[in-house]
Amino acid sequence: MRKAKLLSLALGSALLFTATVATAQTPAPPPPAPYGLPITLDQAKKVMAGAEAEAKKNNWPVAIVILDSGGQIVMMQRLDNTQWGSSDIAKEKARSAVALRRPTKALQDAIAQGGVNLRFLSTGFSVLEGGIPIIADGKIIGSIGVSGVMSNQDAQTAQAGIDNLK
User: What are all long-range contacts of 150-155, with beta carbons under 8 Å and residues at least 24 apart?
Assistant: First the structure.
């Protein structure tokens, strides 16, 4: 009986130690970038041009929305043959990205894990990949949201727009 208690205590201690070490080795995510001055029209035009070029190169009918750091529309464009519902979805992706200061893929990934993360479904924010904050000089100046094709393709289009700003 005593051996069983000692073995149980040793096993419990080993599990606790392993969990503690694993937790200690997981770095905390960096804090989100702070908000900066709103994106300018010239900056938004560069982002839009990059996103549009990526969509056209791939023949993707998408809607593209660019918001400023306060969540207000700076530009919106719906390419030919894009379903009209994508305009609203693109705006919500952009709104979610700037409001939460992170790409909407983070929410999509959290939802996929289930559990308490499912609470994001009731927040009113988009949980679909394709919304990305636009960062300049370490500060969020706006966001871009794209909708119309697969979520990962929407994100690829959005990232191409951001890359065109640099």
Answer: 151/105, 151/108, 153/58, 153/60, 154/62, 154/90, 154/93, 154/128, 154/129, 154/130, 155/103, 155/105, 155/129, 155/130
Q: Closest Cα partner for 88 from 148, 48, 143, 137? A: 148
Q: What angle do CA 165, 89, 76 make, to 5 degrees?
A: 45
The DSSP line for 140-162 is EEEEEEEESS-HHHHHHHHHHHH
- CA–CA separation, 143 vs 68, rounded Å? 7
- Rounded to whole angstroms, how far apart are CA atoms 109 and 41? 32
Outline where DSSP puts E strands in the chain. 63-68, 73-78, 131-136, 139-147
**Tally: H helices and E strands in the chain:** 5, 4
Question: Six-digit token pair at 139?
Answer: 């500060």
User: Global pTM?
Assistant: 0.81
pLDDT (0 to 100) of residue 117: 86
Q: If you search the block for the tokens 């705006």, which residue do you land on? A: 91
Question: What residues of the chain score a pLDDT lower than 70?
Answer: 1-26, 28
